[in-house]
Amino acid sequence: MLVKQLYQELAWRQDKIAMYGKLLDIPRLQAWYGDEGASYTYSKMTLQPLSWTPTLLSLKQQVSEFCQHNFNAMLANCYRDHQDSVSWHSDDEPELGKQPVIASLSLGAERDFHFKKKDGGESYKLPLQSGSLLVMSGATQQNWRHAIHKTRIEKPMRINLTFRNIQ
């Protein structure tokens, strides 16, 4: 099973983030892979890329071909169970460019992916099943925020691979 393989193969990190004047564990594990020099900074944390594993390189090539877009980096998130999450955010860091293409491959447990307009308007919930590929492009990051919330419903592990292009 690909989820177990990636869980064992990737160099997962439990990073901390500054919130409310305290350093808190990010409520998920993460790993950053990419081409040489494809460093990524968000929330005052800079991630240096690890070299692609053969498994990740194969997945990157398949996703790049499907999307007709060349990706040079990937952020892996491991949601160990229903209590792991990511809060509302946009992937709008400068090194991603003005209108980044982000291809998000979900593996393992189904989780709801929430979107809401930055201006307070529309919101949507999209269940992402194992094997689904969500592609965000154009002005998505400029106009929308997204999140995966904690849930009371017990869920097994989910791994999400978000392929990006660092400029």
Give an overview of the whole structure.
The protein starts with a helix and ends with a strand. The chain is built from three helices and 13 strands. By secondary structure, the protein is an alpha+beta fold. The strands form four sheets. A five-stranded antiparallel beta sheet has the order 3-6-13-8-11, with helices on one face. The protein has a four-stranded antiparallel beta sheet with strand order 7-12-9-10. The protein has helices spanning 2-9, 54-67, 140-143, and strands at residues 16-19, 22-25, 29-34, 40-42, 45-47, 73-79, 86-89, 102-108, 111-117, 123-128, 133-136, 144-148, 158-164. Strand 4 (40-42) and strand 5 (45-47) form a beta hairpin. The mean pLDDT is 96.
Compute the number of helices: 3
The level of helicity is 10-25%
Question: Which structural class matches the secondary elements?
Answer: alpha+beta
Oligomer: single chain
Shape category: globular
According to DSSP, the number of beta strands is 13
Average pLDDT level = 96
Strand content: 35-45%
Strand sequence of the main sheet, in spatial order? 3-6-13-8-11
From the alpha-carbon coordinates, what is the Rg to the nearest angstrom? 15 Å
How far apart are the first and last residues' alpha carbons, in Å?
Answer: 33 Å
Series of H and E elements? HEEEEEHEEEEEEHEE
Give a short account of the largest sheet.
5 strands, antiparallel
Low-pLDDT stretches are none
